[in-house]
Amino acid sequence: MPRRLGGRRIPRKKPPRKNKIINTKINEKLREFALTGFMWFLAFANLIIVISFLFQSLKASQQDENRVTPKPGIAEQQPVERPKEGMIRVEVLNGCGENKVAARLRNYLVDRNIDVVDFKNYDRFDIPQTLAIDRKYMDARHAEKIADLVGVDDENVFPQISPQRKLDVSIIIGQDFMDLKAFKTIFNQQ
Questions:
Q1: Is the overall model pTM greater than 0.85, yes or no?
Q2: Domain ranges across the chain
Q3: In CATH, what is the architecture of 89-189?
Q4: Which one, of 156, 155, 148, lies nearest residue 172 by Cα?
Q5: Residue 177 and residue 184: Cα distance in Å, rounded?
């Protein structure tokens, strides 16, 4: 029977239903399971990130080691002292197709304290005369210095400004390479 207080009826509190208690416990267990699963997922993701970072670091260090070692078979290269600031930076390109002429001219220029930043084959092998191209100055001052050292004719020295290149002069070795002062010196030394 409900109690009465001043003529008003005060309802009794009903005991909680068993279903509600069971549902609450199940929800708590599900939340706990989900939270534990999420924590394991985060731990696994962090582990993968750490392992990936370690592999990338190891790979980068191996690539750095590979860059330091000279490649075998590239025309008798010796370790070269790094150039000083303000030196002319040159690329040597083989435009005649003769084997190892770019490597031989590179060694010749390095022996004379010229910073040769690259030497490789040109796009084509039908260049008749050796060219000295200044990539930095319109008056071709750097190209003229290198041309005098190599023996390139004055009419084959010209500017072609190229700011995206990180060099001062491009030498394209032509089919006249045997007539150049540099190659006469190179072949006389052998």
A1: no
A2: 15-69, 89-189
A3: 2-Layer Sandwich (3.30)
A4: 156
A5: 9
